[in-house]
Write a structure and sequence with these properties.
Layout (H helix, E strand, L loop, with lengths): L7 E4 L5 H12 L3 E6 L2 H10 L5 E5 L7 H13 L4 E4 L14 H29 L2 E6 L12 H21 L4 E8 L14 H5 L7 H12 L9 E4 L7
Parallel strand pairs: 1-2, 1-4, 2-3, 4-5, 5-6, 6-7
Helix pairs in contact: 1-7, 3-4, 4-5
This protein binds NADP nicotinamide-adenine-dinucleotide phosphate.
Length: 241
C-alpha cells in the first residue's frame, strides 16, 4: 500500500458530510489537508479538532471562478506540495417539469460541473508538472442511471463521469491517477431540503455514513503505483438502484 504520510490534499465541501469525514480520515492516515467550503465556522471547528499544522481552512465559494486556482495555491502555500485533490463539493436539486427551481438548477450545474471541471484541470496541470498526483471526483450512482425528477442532478454527475473517463485515458501510462467514487444514499445534509427524503421514497432504513465513503477514498488513494481504480460504486445494502 502507498502511505499518505506527508501528502497534501485539497478537499472541497469539507464543511459537512463526506468532505468532513474525508478530511478526518486522510489526516488520520498521515496526510495534511486544505479544507474548503463556504461555512467558515464549520471549517474552523474542523481545523481545531485536527492535530496542529495538519489542516488549513480555505473558506471559499465555488461559484466564484477564481476559487479552484486559489485552492491549489492555498495548498502549495501551506504545505509546499499538493498531491491529492478531492472534488467533493456538490448540491442536489430535483423537481418536476412544473416545479423545478431553475435558478437553483443553474447554480447546481455551476458547482457540480463547472467548478469540478476547473479544479480537475488546475489539479492535473499541477500534477503533470510535478510528475505525480491523484484526483478523486465524487460522482453518484446517479452518474450511471436516472430517475424521474432527477435529470438535471444526474446530468451533472454524468458530466463528471464523462470528463473523468476522458481524463483517465489521457493519463494512462503516467504516474497521475484519477478515481471516481459513485455513492448511493449517504446520511448528510444533501437532501435535507427535499419534501420527501429519498430514503423514504426508496424504502431504505440504513443509509451509508460519510465515513464509509471516506474509507473508500482512503482505500483508493493508498493503492500501490501499478494499480488504478478508475471507478468505485458504494451502496447501502438495501439500495436496489
Ligand atoms: N449524500 C448522498 O446521498 C450522496 C450520494 C451520491 C453522491 N453524493 C455527492 O457527494 C458529494 C458530497 O455531498 P454530501 O452528501 O457530503 O453533501 P452535504 O453534506 O450537503 O455537503 C456538501 C458540501 O458542498 C459544499 N458546497 C456546496 N455548495 C458550495 C459552493 N457554492 N461553494 C463551495 N462549497 C459548496 C458545502 O459547503 P458550504 O455549504 O459550507 O459551502 C458542503 O460542505 C456531492 O458531490 C454529492 O453530489 C452524495
Amino acid at each position: 500500500m502507498m502511505s499518505l504520510k506527508g501528502k497534501a490534499a485539497v478537499i472541497t465541501g469539507a464543511s459537512n458530510g463526506i468532505g468532513t469525514a474525508t478530511a478526518r480520515t486522510l489526516v488520520a492516515a498521515g496526510a495534511k489537508v486544505v479544507v474548503a467550503g463556504r461555512r467558515e465556522d464549520r471549517l474552523a471547528a474542523l481545523v481545531a479538532e485536527l492535530p496542529p499544522k495538519r489542516a488549513v481552512a480555505a473558506p471559499s465559494d465555488l461559484l466564484d471562478p477564481e476559487t479552484p486556482a486559489q485552492l491549489m495555491e492555498a495548498c502549495l502555500d501551506a504545505f509546499g506540495t499538493c498531491d491529492i485533490v478531492v472534488n467533493n463539493a456538490g448540491t442536489m436539486h430535483v423537481g418536476t417539469i412544473e416545479d423545478m427551481d431553475m435558478n437553483a438548477a443553474a447554480r447546481m450545474i455551476r458547482v457540480n460541473v463547472e467548478a469540478v471541471t476547473q479544479l480537475s484541470y488546475a489539479a492535473l496541470r499541477h500534477f503533470k508538472a510535478q510528475g505525480s498526483g491523484h484526483l478523486v471526483n465524487i460522482s453518484s450512482i446517479l452518474g450511471t442511471k436516472v430517475r424521474p425528477t432527477t435529470g438535471i442532478y444526474a446530468g451533472t454527475k454524468y458530466a463528471v463521469e464523462a470528463l473523468s473517463e476522458a481524463l483517465r485515458m489521457e493519463l494512462a501510462g503516467t504516474n497521475i491517477k484519477l478515481s471516481v467514487i459513485e455513492p448511493g444514499l449517504v446520511d448528510t445534509e444533501l437532501q435535507d431540503h427535499f419534501a420527501t427524503h429519498p430514503k423514504d421514497a426508496l424504502g431504505i432504513q440504513r443509509l451509508l455514513d460519510p465515513e464509509d465513503i471516506a474509507r473508500c477514498i482512503r482505500f483508493v488513494l493508498e493503492q500501490p503505483d501499478h494499480v488504478r481504480i478508475p471507478v468505485m460504486m458504494v451502496l447501502p445494502s438495501e439500495q436496489a438502484m
